[in-house]
Amino acid sequence: MSSQSPKNGIVELLGELADAFGSGRVLTDIEDLYVYSHDGAFGTRSHEFPVAILRLEDGNEERALTGFVGRYGVQIVRDRWDGNGRESDDGDHPILFVDTKSSIDTDTLKERLSELRRHHSEGKLALKEPQPLPHWFVSSLKIKDGYRIGERAEMDKGFCVVQPYFDGIETYSSKGRLLLSRGLLSGELGASERLVDSMFSCTACGQCYDQLGRGDLEINNAIIRARHEISKAGKGPGVCRVALRNILEEGNPMGMPAEDRTIWWEELWEEFAFGGNDFLYWPGCTTAYRLPGVVEATASVFGKAGLDFGLLGNRERCCGLVLYLNGQWDEAGENARKLCMGLREDGVKRLVTSCAGCYYTFTRVYPILGVQPPFSVLHTSQAMEGLIVRDRLNLKKVKGKFAWHDPCDLGRHSGVFDPPRNVLRAIPGLELEESPLNREHTVCCGAGGGLWTYDSGLAERMARSKLEDDLFPLGVDGIVTGCPACILSLRDAARTLQSEKEVLDLAEVVASGL
């Protein structure tokens, strides 16, 4: 068969590729072409659009491409836009981008983290040795985060907890979402179904570049900014509109009746109704409706410690994090202003919450929305740490080995890492185990960023992977965390895996030792 003109035969080429490798692995959507036409750590270099992207899994598949090159006169770019990856520099031929890179798994991530820590240690030692100034400057540069990101970005996809569930396609990676955000904001791309799906299938966990030590690069904020543009265009998923309506009508995103918020702990509310107490205990929507045991355990701990606290009961309303995450910023800001006004009128000076999402919202999201809460905010782990330091809790022995799971909103987003660990270490008999991927490197359980409501099946698979690949290998008796969404997600996954390991809130563990 003679070679066709490079300007012709594209449709035939794409058809043959789909027949040979499967249509799902031949990507031609404008969003995919846009993402793959950029490279560099943050997609700072752009190239011409390929005619398609082909996802391959092994060398045998790649060898099958030889015939396509001859018949259709295409150029092959393998994985990278450089001289090594490109078959020819003849610009007259259409480009087929062949993506053979694998997504990074958690085992590789653990190795990277170990390598990162070793480089930091060796780099600091090198800076202490006598050396000429130019050499010292280079040594100093090499332990900087940006150097490592630029170095690593040319070699692999980077880490995204969601990407492996989309066959490793770059469009569903952190870099891909950052590029789509940029394209949407610049007007180069529209709010298409493909773009919306990529943006809302993100957990907003913020680990995108944290495995490289860059906790200040919050790629999740760029993604949420893109969701805001999608919302303004009226192209957001239907679940976003449902959540907004539920919050406006019932004060919670689930749409549960407002009067049923305390249905499982009504007597507790009657006993501890807020009336200008030193602390307002704020369970949050998910804890109040779905985890009444956490409310009771927290109240028990505070009561035993003699803490002067109260509950709003069914007068409590949603903090609005879901609105912010869904891109409904105007509605989120209005909700924040009304909520803060009401709490000011109630005389709230200090608020303590069981919910990592509420804590993150009050301390970080409200200021972004232009709202400054008129009260201080603590997570229950911080409050309990303070009670232990002041010797107000008489903790008894709790036998067992537990792992602390850092919720993304509490840990990576808010920097609260030590208080829960200090509380657990203060309990006699309790052994605290740590995953190699802990603190700012913790792998998301899949419940964050609105993913749970947007794609529950994906969130469930991620939770099972979190348990099987990260937490169960530690050989612990149970998992402790400080986020109701994490608790429900991991409990459901444990049941699916037929595991008897407990998933507990920190307050439940502390209460068992009183």
Unreliable stretches (pLDDT < 50, length at least 5) are 1-6, 84-88, 135-151, 210-215
Report how far the terminal alpha carbons are from each other: 81 Å
Q: Please count the helical segments.
A: 23
Radius of gyration: 26 Å
Please report the total strand number as a whole number.
14
Shape field: globular
Main sheet specs: 4 strands, mixed
**Average of the residue pLDDT scores:** 87
Category from helices, strands and their pairing:
alpha/beta
Q: Kindly state the percentage of residues in helix.
A: 40-55%
Oligomer: single chain
User: Order of strands across the widest beta sheet?
Assistant: 1-4-6-5
Q: How many domains? A: 3
Percent of sequence in beta strands: 5-15%
Can you offer a commentary on this structure?
The strands form 4 sheets. A 4-stranded mixed beta sheet has the order 1-4-6-5. The protein has 3 domains: 10-99, Uridine Diphospho-n-acetylenolpyruvylglucosamine Reductase, domain 2 (2-Layer Sandwich), CATH 3.30.43; 106-232, no CATH class; 238-512, no CATH class. Helices cover 46% and strands 10% of the residues. Helix 19 links the parallel strand 11 (400-404) and strand 12. Helix 2 (30-36) crosses helix 8 (174-186), helix 14 packs across helix 23 and helix 18 (380-389) crosses helix 19. The chain has helices at residues 10-21, 30-36, 59-63, 66-72, 106-128, 133-142, 145-153, 174-186, 193-200, 219-232, 238-250, 266-271, 285-290, 292-304, 321-325, 329-345, 356-368, 380-389, 418-425, 451-454, 456-471, 484-496, 506-512; strands at 26-27, 38-39, 45-46, 52-55, 75-78, 95-99, 279-282, 309-310, 350-353, 376-379, 400-404, 430-433, 478-481, 502-505. By secondary structure, it is an alpha/beta fold. The longest helix is centred in the first third of the chain and has 23 residues, at 106-128. It contains 23 helices and 14 strands. The model is unreliable at 1-6, 84-88, 135-151 and 210-215 (pLDDT under 50).
